[in-house]
Amino acid sequence: MSGAYRLVLLFLLLGSAGLGYRSVETILQDPALTPIVDRTADEIVALTDQMIAAEATPERLADLLSRRLAEQPRNWVALQALADLYAERDLPLPAAYQIAWDEESGIVAQTGACLSCAWDIGTCSLSTALLCKAPILLTPVEDLRGITKAGVDYASGTEIDRLDLGLSVVGLSATVLIAASGGTSGTVKAGTALVRLAKGMRLLTPRLSSRMTASLTEGVRWADIPAVRGVSDLPALLRTDALAPITSTFADLGRTQDAVGTAQTLHLLPLIDDAADARAVARVSEALGPRTVSRVEVLGKSRLFRATVRLSDTAIELTAGLVGLLAGLGAAAAHVIQTLMFRQLRRSAHRRR
What we know:
This protein is an all-alpha fold and 353 residues long. It is 75% helix and 2% strand. The radius of gyration is 29 Å and the shape is flat.
């Protein structure tokens, strides 16, 4: 009877292993059965609210605020987000915040900051960028400047900034295509403008900058640029397949800007290293809106991004199946060990007789 039992158990284990292997193979071959799926906007809001309730203690907020106040120049995008979180948590805002705000929000201070930012983009802070520079960058003016500068550099033998020129070509091409696409190229145009501003403010991560440069180098027909006679010729210079990852990033940055605003998007840009990061930031921003920055300040990039995804039902079922398989293997191993031990005991008892 024990032999028959072991045989049945063996067949069950083999069947379970076969089904598990088939499930894994199906998941790997079918993108619709991916083990990781996006959370809905409501799920992102609910989970991040739960995380903030646990993490945003008075002590943690005071520490974050004091660190931001100590920075020079002060990042008022982050500071205002933390102040909003104080209000959301019904906590009294430290007096140091108001003192610092009074110091920097006067008309003379703002005017001086705007003049400096307009003269040299490298002096722009996140707080002055929207007021002083972004309205210029969201028009074709800066793209035309980028192309003109590249022409001057070429004529003088100076090395051309391919990232800057590539952004100009894609930005102007998107401007041309906005009317033809019914406006869908607008997010790409907005994204290129944001990247240009972030580049000048040194907010791009090295990885994102190198990825964009490589994509634009591959995606623009540089040799055909001298033949361009007008802005309408620019779209023909683009290799759309090669540019697909980077234009997707530009579009996601445009989505983020629509959801939270220009200055807030610039604040979030240092979180982005690749297209996947840009998509995650766009999804979080569309779900959380103005609360996005405060969540980033408290939770950080990794935890916030993890809150945007979850295991799919298929993955949970597969995990349960694997747990069941391992439990079955454990039970089988225990049975074999038990059988061997009893057999050894019987032999020992027989010898003693």
